[in-house]
Amino acid sequence: xxxxRYFACLLRERFDKNKDVKDMVKATELLRAGEEEFWAxxxxxxxxxxxxxxxxxxxxxECYKLPxxxxxxxxxxxxxxxxxxxxKREQWKKLQRESWDKEIKQLEEETPADGPKTEALPxxxxxxxxxPLWWHYVTRPREIPM
Amino acid sequence: xxxxLLLNTSMLLTLTxxxxxxxxxxLSKTYRNSPTTITRxxxxxxLTSLVPMSLFTYCNTESxxxxxxxxxxxxxKIPLSFKMxxxxxxxxxxxxxxxxxxxxxxxxxxxxxxxxTKFFSYLLMFLIAMxxxxxxxxxxxxxxxxxxxxxxxxxxxxxxxxxAEANTAALxxxxxxxxxxxxLILNMAWLASTTNSWEIQLSHSPQTPILPLLGLILAATGxxxxxxxxxxxxxxxxxxxxVSALLHSSTMVVAGIFLLIRTHPxxxxxxxxxxxxxxxxxxxxxxxxxxxxxxxxxxxxxxFSTSSQLGLMMVTIGLDLPQLAFLHISTHAxxxxxxxxxxxxxxxxxxxxxxxxxxxxxxxxxxxxxxxLTIGNLALMGTPFLAGFYSKDLIIExxxxxxxxxxxxxxxxxxxxxxxxYSLRMTLLVQTGSTRIPTLTPMNENNxxxxxxxxxxxxxxxxxxLLISSIIPPTKTPPMTxxxxxxxxxxxxxxxxxxxxxxxxxxTHTLTQxxxxxxxxxxxxxxYFNPLTHRSSSTKLLNNGQQIAxxxxxxxxxxKMGPEGLADLQQTTAKITTTLHSGLIKTYLxxxxxxxxxxxxxxx
Lengths: 146, 604
What we know:
- Chain A: Mammalian complex I is composed of 45 different subunits.
- Chain A: Belongs to the complex I LYR family.
- The complex is a heterodimer of chains A (146) and B (604).
- By secondary structure, chain A is mostly helical.
- Chain A is 48% helix and 0% strand.
- Chain A has 2 domains: 41 residues, no CATH class; 78 residues, no CATH class.
- The mean pLDDT of chain A is 82.
- By secondary structure, chain B is mainly alpha-helical.
- Chain B folds into 3 domains: 506 residues, no CATH class; 45 residues; 32 residues.
- Helices cover 73% and strands 3% of the residues of chain B.
- Chain B has 24 helices and 2 strands.
- Chain B has a two-stranded antiparallel sheet.
- The chains are: A mainly alpha (146), B mainly alpha (604).
- Chains A and B meet through loops of A and helix 21 of B.
């Protein structure tokens, strides 16, 4: 890790030397040379964590992740195995139906005119509102299924 | 007489035991399969298959059983015939032993899978297909087994079908196998048309034309991942580790070589075919060894080492030594399966981590696994008196002392060096050195389901070489006299490879940035083969299709036949006539006057 710091300081020094170049042509050329050097210095086989996209374990359990509306199709004997969840489930669904319009209205108000800038969703602003698209977040399947 | 009966009965009993978990749930309503029942079934089958093997060893019994012919044309019969000869009887116990260990390991490894019984039944189906292939006496049954292992390979590689790369890998496996199947079907067609039967022992003709033999070699290239059709084997590592251990190390990939061993009598007659095998094998073993040098994923390293050993087996077949190839298959099964199981244990303990750059210093934490890994690697390198020695050293001795292609010899020797290099690299990076694993990884080897199979296979890899080579009587005299350098070539080269690996590892500890030389680029992108062939073949095909469609349909029918054709015709006629009717009156008057003058002069 100390080696990384050393080389990072050298690179910063190189960058700072050319900081005050006002000539646009030269600046673009410097940028292009820098980008080429970046590409040439890329690692041929970069280390990718197993769960990140491109890793060995990414999306491995996608085939076991079922959507939550399958729960509606369970047999009553199966539903009886989780009584407290299913007792409240209808109320949750009613809540989702009611808050949906408010979520949409909030999202429409808060996105700028030519499309959303980031993927982050805004939090709930008013009293009694729920954060937009909360249902998909609350009912997402677990990462490593049973 | 009774001995043959005992032999037949015990072999058929083995096969029936294997089939039981597939049939019992259909017959009885309350019976459910479970991983433990399937493991126990395979263990029982292994113990039963030891009977015919010992019968073969001590009484030299072989038999061919034929029953129930499928008559669909009058003079071409396909009997259901089993050939129990040296190869199949030796292969059964080995395959069943390895499968039993792998299934036991898989009960620990796949314990978190929701559909674990389906996984085990897939593995069992694969085993049935593989054993059918081994014991088949005619090409039809062999083809059934061949296709069976191909399909089960597809299903098992794409076990986690939510993952895009697993699906592409499974497709790759099936497509490359299919291309090899073309060769096999070609060979079967030739056999059916010339010899009128698909039995294997009846195909002894003095000179076989090269075409069916090339078909066989193509089939082996596809199934055993030789150079031209190899990308599916490293991609097949997308499947779970027990799948890699069973299919792609010990059993399925030797199906191609097994086919060549079975049809060896017709291969011997044609020297060109043997030379093709030799060169193809040498090329694939070197290419795979080069690619394995810069891989960073343990499973890919072991996959490439499998590919390299398969090339070596192909070289043995090219040298006209089917028994030695079979010996190498058997010994290789033990240590390769063990290597895969060890790597699976390491991966699971580290929580899914497969990159060797993030492993190190595992010797203290996982002693059994790492020592078995070392034993496996030593056996792979051909250390004297471990399993690999008996087969590998013999192959290299024969290679050195026969009158073959020097180029193939050099390639194979170079590949042997590289084998030592990458095995040592893997061992060093995984086990020794300062640890690079993330902190707080709880790892243990307490579970006997995981460590028993590994230790069992370790004993197997140590003893199997000695046992099997002393049991099989050789049909050809092995070369006995050769200069000392030739005899010790394999060991010298292996030691060279070890020294190379040690040098490189000490160099890399002092480097700060990974250099990108031409050679390391070639090796890390697997020789540029994957993108080249995959993209070029599909773009060519699509382009051709587009050209054909464009020329035939669009331009011909819609344009030339109809409006544009008429328009073109009219245009050309119009152009010709406009040149004629240029409208220059003076020229007309002049030519008119000239012609009148000429006629007046002539007629005067």
